[in-house]
Amino acid sequence: MIKISILLPYKENYTKTDAGAVSLFVKDTNDFSKHKNEISIFGNTGSTKNILSKNYININLDKKLFKSTSKLYVHSFLKLHSKERTDLIEVHNRPNYIRYIKDIFKKKIILYFHNDPLSMSGSKTIQDRFYLLNNLDKIIFNSNWSKNRFFIGLKNSDIFLSKTSVCFQSAPKTKINFSKKKKIISFIGKLNNAKGYDLFGEAIIKILDKHSEWRAKVIGDEPREKLFYEHKNLQILGFKANKYILNFLKTTSISVVCSRWDEPFGRASLEAASRGSAVIISNKGGLPETAKNAIILKDLTVNNLFNTIDKLITHPKKLLKIQKNNLSNFKFNHQYITNIIDLIRDEFIDKNINKKFYINKKPLLKILHITNFNDRFNGRLHFNTGRRLNNGFIRLGHNVLSVSDRDILNKNKRLTDPKGIDYLQNTIIDSFSNFKPDLLILGHADAVSLKTLEFLKNTSNDLKICQWFLDPLSMYGPDYKNNTRRIKDKEKLMDATFLTTDPNSLSLNMNNSFFIPNPCDHSFETLENYDSDCKNDVFFAMSHGVHRGELKKGKYDDREIFINKLVKRNTRIKFDIYGMNNVQPIWGSNFINKISNSSMGLNLSRGKTIKYYSSDRIAQLVGNGLLTFIDEKTYLNDFFTKKEMVFYSSISDLSEKINRYKVDKFDRKKIAKAGKKKYFRFFNSTLVANYILSKTFGFENNEKFIWDKNF
């Protein structure tokens, strides 16, 4: 089982007579949860009489001058809850509490949003919401509208989707006898302009004048606004407990929820639908999600509301049909919603809880990442995989220290150390001593010696070391012997090795090796070429030497033959080609400017095709929204369909498909857009970084790594 502590908002009333929507939600889902015997509910309520459930613990506060009430409330909660030996804290509707809790509590935390996230302290800014995504284990929204609001301004939010869920509010199941429905029209909520009570008031007077056999009943109050409407058939009942409202709705025929403001969900319309009322709602916020068969007001005016109610009254068969449809299609009962919550809780049951790296000792990892960050090229080679992975680690909340090995070698050559090798080893050891990392990651860091790694391992028994490698490793590919030596050199000290080739397809045997895709990154791949009518058709770029930055004389690449044949066969296609035929390669922002002019791109890697291998160019092509062609022998169609990439079998097949999609703009743009979306969802730098950590530390992960054979 899992021990759960639920924290209500400060001053949230948790009594039978005055409970608000948050308290009712917590109480109802608590009653139906399979974990109810392990749940404790904490809050601060005005009265401890008529409490909704026995497992409620009241937090009594002695307010202190000049001290944050929220901070005092959370710290008081943490002192009380520590006696409960909690595995999971669930915070309701207060994102600003999370920072206080994270300072002390190092286990699982879920945050529930019951209101618009952009209106709440702790989630208003993009920085606030990034913090929540990186520090919470789950965020649950009460509607898709609320969830979409949370992600406004967060580009490529697909990388965080696994951390979020939608869980609507609920109402109890009941049977309804439609013959006992009375000619009653209801309005339930605050009696103010934001809720549209003025619209309802004016419309209902006209309705009651026309249909004298009908009555209207209003439940709610609003001391701050004075909207008074009088009619002999209109009754204002004031505030009522939820139990009263649910019984009242059993006999109500029409329920009106005509809010002007964007309601995050709308409990009034949900409960009315659950009791078989014909529900009339405005198209605001999450209201359309509350009742599948609700009548949605296109124009929020008195006349439109009057006409809508009038049509229901004058067409009793239509009214009855809508009532029955609302009841039969209602599924958001307490048990259904509680099951969703319990499934989320079950993800955190202790079978995995102590195996995850961030639970053991520290909430975050310190990572020493050694690879070539190309600082010496003044931004020309900024767009590299090392930086993409760094972005991923940082988005996950980890602390990263970068060491650019080849820049250090280049700048520290001495007569006594002609290659700078000794200086590099000393730099790494000093950095390790000062930073004390939990993880050392190597990326093509050939100059880091075995002796240095052995020294670091002996210094810290808990240190994990892994490596990633992007170059081709096929027996029939370029530099096979040299690349094999490089990747095997440090194998015995590696906790894991990550390759951009399927390890099972290689002739070399690598212990604890895993495939990773070339990651894209939403701060690097920013173009959406599918939205443009580009002047060029097909983009292709290659290079004889990344660091040299220009063509090498006498250097040969077998891709040149293929490309020249392709160009010769397709004279009507406008190619934009770099790195061959005396056209210099392109880098940095110049690369982005050039690629923005093409609607399609060819992903062609050096050497004989091998399963899953591609150069990192694929991330730039697909990630920038070009329709991308790739050899089917890469088997990347294990992950992408023909609706997301175009796979070819030969140069003839490729030629035919290039010409087809030059003409078929609709399909070209559609596939390119779907390809970018899929790549960013499953091959983004944050997911790849998370996968590297999960395999290196050996913890189980709930993320969807579609490239993992063990998934």
Structure keywords:
711 residues; alpha/beta; Rossmann fold; 4 domains; 6-stranded parallel sheet; 24 helices
Write up what this structure looks like.
With 711 residues, the chain is of the alpha/beta class. The chain has 4 domains: 4-166, Rossmann fold; 178-331, Glycogen Phosphorylase B (Rossmann fold), CATH 3.40.50.2000; 358-515, 3-Layer(aba) Sandwich (Rossmann fold); 529-683, Rossmann fold (3-Layer(aba) Sandwich). Helix content is 35%, strand content 16%. α6 links the parallel β8 and β9. α1 (21-32) crosses α11, α6 (197-210) packs across α9 (302-314) and α14 crosses α24 (685-697). The two termini are 25 Å apart.
The gist of it:
With 711 residues, this protein is an alpha/beta fold. Helices cover 35% and strands 16% of the residues.
For the termini, the CA-CA separation is: 25 Å
The helical percent reads: 25-40%
Identify the overall geometry. globular
Strand content: 15-25%
Quickly name the level 1 CATH class of the largest domain. Answer: Alpha Beta
Q: How large is the count of helical segments?
A: 24
What's the helix and strand layout?
Elements: E1 4-10, H1 21-32, E2 39-44, E3 56-58, H2 69-81, E4 88-92, H3 98-102, E5 108-113, H4 126-135, E6 138-141, H5 144-150, E7 164-166, E8 184-188, H6 197-210, E9 215-219, E10 234-238, H7 242-249, E11 254-257, H8 267-274, E12 278-282, E13 295-297, H9 302-314, H10 316-328, H11 334-346, H12 350-353, H13 357-360, E14 366-371, H14 385-395, E15 399-404, H15 405-411, H16 421-435, E16 439-443, H17 450-459, E17 464-469, H18 480-488, E18 496-499, E19 513-515, E20 536-541, H19 559-569, E21 575-578, H20 588-595, E22 598-603, H21 617-623, E23 627-631, E24 646-648, H22 651-663, H23 665-682, H24 685-697
Parallel strand pairs: 1-2, 1-4, 2-3, 4-5, 5-6, 6-7, 8-9, 8-11, 9-10, 11-12, 12-13, 14-15, 14-16, 16-17, 17-18, 18-19, 20-21, 20-22, 22-23, 23-24
